[in-house]
Automatic annotation (TrEMBL):
Domain of life: Bacteria
Higher taxonomy: Bacteria, Bacillati, Actinomycetota, Actinomycetes, Kitasatosporales
Protein name stated in the entry: Tetratricopeptide repeat protein
Length: 191
């Protein structure tokens, strides 16, 4: 994962957890994150894997997105990290594009996701997009796929502009710039 402040997504997850205290899955994701940050990568990975099995492919999109996003950070193989980052993006994109349409409601009337499981403010899930794209760009750069990395950086830059001004947004913009420069240096001089 690309380091972005001490994790703006964590703040999003914390806000979400505070809004729905009955959400034990987010609590358990948070516990695994703490294990990883304390240096117990293997135990964090094991707990994330157990949670992933428990949630399942039809589970709550916010849970799947957050879990896959952090599971990627525990991977030893860069291809596995890419796979988990792609799962996180898939969960987020699928949720945003496949939400049920409320008949008779004005367009954009609800900023809360409907469906099974906890109700999520869309802003909570959409706040992940810049970081998801940035992580994918870093994954592709690490796998020597600069064209894919640049494509993800463009998506990261576009989605970061949708965020409110603040420290999280600025830290993402700075991280995008740093990765962009790194990819540019790795490409060498233009031919």
């Amino acid at each position: 994962m690309v380091a972005v402040s001490e994790c703006g997504e964590c703040a999003v997850a914390e806000d979400r957890r505070a809004a729905t205290p009955e959400d034990g899955v987010l609590t358990r994701i948070g516990q695994a994150i703490m294990l990883h940050r304390a240096g117990d990568r293997e135990e964090a990975r094991n707990r994330f894997a157990d949670l992933w099995q428990e949630i399942g492919p039809q589970g709550d999109a916010f849970h799947r997105c957050a879990l896959a996003h952090y599971m990627a950070d525990t991977q030893d193989d860069p291809r596995d990290e890419l796979d988990w980052d792609l799962r996180a993006l898939e969960a987020a994109e699928g949720f945003v594009t496949e939400r049920p349409v409320v008949t008779g409601a004005p367009a954009g009337a609800s900023n809360v996701a409907d469906g099974p499981g906890p109700r999520h403010p869309l802003v909570a899930l959409s706040a992940f997009f810049p970081s998801l794209h940035l992580n994918l760009a870093a994954d592709y750069a690490g796998l020597d796929r600069p064209a894919d990395a640049r494509a993800q950086l463009l998506r990261a830059r576009a989605s970061v502009n949708a965020l409110a001004d603040g420290e999280y947004r600025q830290s993402l913009k700075d991280a995008i710039d740093r990765l962009e420069r790194r990819i540019g240096r790795a490409a060498g001089p233009p031919r």
